[in-house]
Design brief:
six-stranded mixed beta sheet, 4 domains, Immunoglobulin-like, 40 strands, 12 helices
Length: 806
């Protein structure tokens, strides 16, 4: 008996227009049905035809799922007249891959229907009908052969050549003795231990002999090279040592393939002098930890799919005038993520992300704990481990002029920022795309930039006697320092000395400072480095440079990578407004005016060395509102943008106009309440209230829905200034488990019920025999008769279900 194949051409044409079929006038029960589960037809058309029935004046969202994952686009259908329609759901890349595997799966058409205030979900599940020509039945097991018989081995199953080897490692660098903190105060010694661990984390990606490793260090900054007694303990030294060890393991890599960056953590010990004395032994331990992390990550690498996504942290990055933040200038809010997942189960192996905001919320000096902390990167790492599993590596993207709003310097505020960032990571991963291009490559370009800040150069020259620029002032290195480096020079320069190398190529008597820029390519993603606190315009220029490069989908920047040269402030007249500079320390911690352009040019050269075709670009100040300095500014963020918890924490901040002589001189919650130090709030749910400026409070929304929250202040001229953000409250999530049999074993697949999301990003299983597993689809261990699963959706909502295993 033969089967007539589904007509591919006709099916594809159906995607262009499928007429609605009138339904009888009687009440219609909601239903969504898959027209055919035929493998050949689905693959030929790269789409699935569904028949949908629904009452008039209802709205449906329909998509195709398999093994708990959405494998098609989502169609939105509004039923004004017709109640019976046919639509085509276009298959996504993951759906096409899944259908090609010839494995027994069940397809599910899932429809969420809203009519008035009522929402319901209906499903139609069908077993995939495999094409016997594409997927022949497995041959019977061969008979045992007598010794000596020569029979060729069966062909190995087709391998997924787009898999990478991904591994991570975590090495602790928490101080075990009192040390001065880097980034705050002057010689403030933290004596109360560690609030949460300081760490070096590595994210290794390999394919064949190619590899790229990203390393993130909980530190304010790490110079490329150092003076005595820490020669050989710089970031560049760590990169070279780690690359040499990887080459000894068979990889074709150089130091360029090991990208090392610091989180710019202001609650970690200084290893650069400036704020206090650098402990030479601690700096050496960091270098050793970085090399160890790279090698441990490679040793633990395993097969993984690699996905990429880009989220946003808009709302958290300050656009209010203040210290090291300039109203009216563009900010970078992009949150790039690499997501490694286990083939088959979808379990998270690791994540790597670059967050574009300063790590300086927690202040050991003013906080009641008086301890070292990793600040929000530590919180995010821990929270993602709970939600997704695997190991998270958090690095920093654009940091110059990128500060978070939030005036509380305690760890409580760190938690709110961490919850916001984690929530945005989860939301971004729902739109992740799989990286199929297995290119792994990296190149570095050394460059030199003219040094204009003679104070910082003098602090380097004064670190030991005989510096190339001498040592201005009556002080020199104390005899009791015994060449240990960094000492209190504050009576002359206001800071401790700086222990960055004075040897070429890191310093030349022009005077100029030498450093490097690296471009690393991971499939269709490009990561470029900035050896300091680059402003958003540097990031924008680098993104523009790679826009036209073939095979590149996204380009990103990693800040504080390979070195720490401070801000990218250009002090030449007319580049930046001097009036706004007075509230920042950009000039004090700044090498020179040419660093931005020199960095972009070096990135272009490194990209060209990889065979890319970067365009020549110039960083320029990007101004969104040229009048912002003369106007009030206001901003807020919620600790979660989407959640099933209706109680949401908000933090808002507002300032009056900062420009001297501006006609706008005061603000209040209304025109008639000037100077009341309050902000007017409208939460989009009928609630209107005022709250004190620069305070955190909780608002409870009435229930599931999407709300447009607004905060506003009004100035003495009667003009109102607003900030708005959408907050989504999800219906409570619940979990369900499907059971299938594959190769004689029971396979469990977790899926979401209820709620407003059906994207299960993670599932954590425990079995009655004590075993555990991770992934949306798992094989039941022998001997288990019950399983409990906790699912996590794309907003970080969770639900748990327990099932008996059939």
């Amino acid at each position: 008996m033969s089967h007539r194949p589904f007509a591919a051409a006709g099916f594809a044409a159906a995607a262009l227009f499928i007429a609605a079929v009138p339904a009888p006038a009687a009440t219609v029960s909601p239903r969504a049905t898959l027209a055919t589960p035929n493998q050949t037809a689905l693959l030929a058309a790269r789409g699935a035809v569904v028949t949908v029935e629904a009452p008039r004046r209802s709205v449906a969202r329909v998509a195709l799922y398999a093994r708990g994952h959405r494998i098609s686009g989502t169609r939105r259908i509004r039923f004004r007249h017709a109640t019976h329609v046919r639509r085509v759901l276009t298959l996504r890349g993951n759906g096409i891959d899944l259908l090609r595997r010839c494995s027994p799966i069940k397809l599910e058409v899932r429809m969420t229907l809203r009519r008035g205030s009522h929402t319901s979900t209906v499903r139609d599940r069908r077993a995939l009908a495999l094409d016997p020509r594409r997927c022949p039945a497995p041959a019977p097991a061969p008979q045992a052969q007598a010794p000596g018989d020569d029979h060729p081995a069966a062909p190995a199953p087709k391998q997924d050549r787009s898999l990478f080897k991904v591994g991570t490692a975590v090495v602790d660098i928490s101080p075990t003795s009192p040390m001065p903190v880097g980034g705050y105060g002057a010689n403030y010694i933290v004596t109360n231990g560690v609030h949460d661990p300081l760490q070096v984390r590595a994210f290794f990606v390999g394919h064949g002999k190619d590899a790229v490793t990203f390393v993130s260090v909980d530190s304010q900054g790490w110079f490329a090279a150092y003076q005595a007694p820490n020669e050989g303990d710089g970031a560049d030294d760590a990169r070279r040592e780690a690359a040499a060890a990887l080459a000894g393991r068979g990889y074709d890599v150089s130091a360029s393939n090991v990208v090392v960056s610091a989180t710019h953590d202001h609650a970690a010990p200084t290893i650069m002098g400036i704020w206090g004395h650098t402990d030479p032994a601690y700096l050496h331990a960091i270098k050793q930890a970085a090399v160890k992390a790279v090698l441990d990550a490679e040793a633990g690498a395993r097969d993984a799919e690699l996905w990429s996504a880009t989220g946003t942290i808009k709302g958290l990055v300050s656009q209010v005038q203040g210290t090291d933040q300039m109203a009216g200038f563009a900010v970078d809010t992009e949150l790039p993520i690499l997501w490694a997942r286990e083939p088959g189960t979808g379990a998270t192996v690791a994540t790597y992300m670059d967050v574009p905001t300063h790590v300086d919320q927690y202040n050991p000096i003013s906080s009641p704990e008086h301890q070292f902390s990793a600040d929000y990167p530590g919180y995010v790492r821990d929270r993602l481990k709970e939600l997704l599993g695997g190991t998270s590596v958090v690095a920093e993207s654009t940091l110059g002029r990128q500060e978070s709003i939030g005036a509380d310097s305690t760890y409580d505020e760190v938690g709110h920022q961490g919850r916001f960032i984690t929530n945005q990571v989860m939301r971004a991963l729902t739109h992740a795309h799989r990286i199929k291009d297995t290119t792994l490559a990296a190149a570095s370009q050394p460059f030199s930039t003219q040094a204009e800040n003679m104070g910082l150069l003098a602090a380097m020259s004064c670190n030991h006697p005989g510096g190339p620029l001498g040592c201005p002032g009556p002080l020199s290195e104390p005899a009791g320092n015994n060449g240990e480096g960094t000492w209190d020079w504050s009576a002359v320069g206001g800071i401790f000395t700086i222990n960055r190398s004075l040897d070429a190529p890191w310093f030349t008597p022009v005077p100029a400072v030498g450093t490097t820029a690296t471009v690393a390519r991971v499939g269709d993603q490009v990561y470029a480095t900035a050896p300091g606190e680059a402003f958003p315009e540097v990031t924008s220029a680098i993104k523009r440079a790679f826009d036209g490069s073939d095979g590149i989908r996204d380009s990103h920047i990693i800040d504080h990578a390979g070195d720490q040269l401070g801000y990218y402030w250009d002090q030449r007249p007319g580049v930046y407004p001097s009036a706004q500079l007075a509230q920042s320390d950009f000039q004090r911690f700044n090498v020179g005016s040419h660093l931005a352009q020199d960095n972009v040019d070096a990135v272009d050269a490194a990209g060209a060395a990889l065979g890319l075709v970067p365009a020549a670009e110039h960083p320029y100040a990007e101004v969104d509102n040229p009048n912002a300095f003369a106007e009030p500014t206001i901003q807020f963020y919620s600790s979660r943008v989407e959640t099933d918890d209706p109680a949401v924490s908000f933090y808002g901040t507002a300032k009056k106009a900062q420009a001297p002589g501006a006609p706008s001189t005061s603000i209040g919650s209304s025109a008639g309440t000037q100077g009341d130090a309050k902000i007017a709030w409208d939460f989009g749910d009928g609630t209107i209230e005022t709250q004190s400026n620069q305070t955190r409070f909780t608002h409870t929304f009435p229930g599931p829905g999407t709300y447009r929250a607004q905060a506003s202040v009004t100035d003495n001229l009667g003009k109102t200034y607003r900030w708005a953000q959408t907050v989504r409250i999800d219906a409570p999530l619940s979990a369900a488990v499907d059971q299938d049999t594959a190769d004689g074993k029971v396979v469990l697949t977790a899926r979401a019920l209820g709620g407003q999301r059906f994207d299960v990003l993670a599932a954590h299983w425990t079995f009655s025999d004590g075993a555990s597993a991770a992934g949306t689809s798992v094989t039941v261990p022998s001997g288990a008769d019950h399983a409990t699963v906790t699912i996590v959706d794309g907003a970080g909502n969770t639900a748990t279900a327990t099932v008996a295993i059939a």
